[in-house]
C-alpha cells in the first residue's frame, strides 16, 4: 500500500510538471483529486482498516492531497507567468492603437432638444403622441371634412383597420384635450409622414413640434408673444416675427408664422427667396368646433395652437441646403454637425 501511495505521488507530480495550460491543470486536478481519482477511492477503503490504523492512514491521505494541491497551484502560477512573459515579449508599445470614433447626435435630435428647452423655459410641458393614429385623431376631431384632399390615399399612408401614419403632430392636441383639463400648455415634438417625393424641401418622414395652449382668456396676442419669444431665443434677439392670414380646418382664425430671414436680416437673399421672411409653420386660435367635438366648453375656454417644422429650423441653424441630407445618414454630415444634446 505504501508503495502504491509513493507511486501515486510520483506520477501526479510528473504529470503536473508537464501541464502547459490552465486546461491541463484542470484535467490533472480531476484525475488526481476528483471524485473518480485513486486518492478519493482510498478514502473509501478506510472502513476496511482496523480502527486503530484509521487515523494514521487518514492523515497520510490528507498529506498526499495537500502535496498534490500544492503541486497543482505551483504549476498553475508558473503557467500564468510564462504566458505573461510571452505577452510582454510580443507587446510592441510603438504599435498604433485602434482609434475609436466618437459618436455624435443627429442634428435633428440636437435641434429638437434645443426647441424643447426653449419651450420648457417658457413653462410648457412636453406631451407625446403615437406615430400610428386613427382618422378620428388625425382628421375628424381636427374638424377636417371627409372630402378634404389631405385624407387622400395619395397623400396619407394608411396602415390597416382605419389606422394611418399621422400626417401632423396636431393629433396630440386632440389626445391632450381628451385626457387633460385646461389650463393646458404643452408642446409635442415628433415624427410625421406624408406621401411626398423626397426633394430639397420635402421628405416622406419629417418632424414637427406642436404647441397647444388652452385657458380662460387666451388670445391671438399670446400666440404672437410665444412665437416672438421662440424666434428670439432660438435665432437671436434681432429676429422679428409675424403672422399672416391662412386657413386650417382646426383653427379660426388661422395664420402662417414667419420669422425675419436669419441669413440676411430681412434684406432679401437666396435663403428667403428675396422676401426677407422665412415660413416657420401654421398656427391659429383653436376652432370652437374642435372644443365642441371634445366636449370642452368653448364659451369659457379659448386657445392657440401652432406647428413648427423641425427640419426647417435645423436647416436654417446648420445651413443645410437640402432636406434629404438630413436623412441619408452620411457620416460626413453627421461628423460636421456633431454637437451636444
Ligand atoms: N398641422 C398643420 C400642418 O401640418 C400645421 C398647423 C397649423 C398646426 C395650424 C397647428 C395649427 O397647431 O394651429 O400643416
Polypeptide structure, described:
With 341 residues, this protein is an alpha+beta fold. The protein is 40% helix and 19% strand. It contains eleven helices and nine strands. The chain has helices at residues 2-17, 22-33, 38-45, 54-90, 107-121, 135-138, 171-179, 220-235, 288-293, 310-318, 331-336, and strands at residues 125-126, 132-134, 163-165, 184-193, 205-215, 241-248, 251-260, 277-286, 302-309. Strands 1-4-5-9-8-7-6 form a seven-stranded mixed β-sheet, sandwiched between helices. Strands 2-3 form a two-stranded antiparallel ribbon. Strand 6 and strand 7 form a beta hairpin. The longest helix has 37 residues, at 54-90. The termini are far apart. The model has no long low-confidence stretch (mean pLDDT 94). Bound molecules: 3,4-dihydroxyphenylalanine. Residues 168, 170, 210, 248, 251, 281-284, 305-307 line the site of 3,4-dihydroxyphenylalanine.
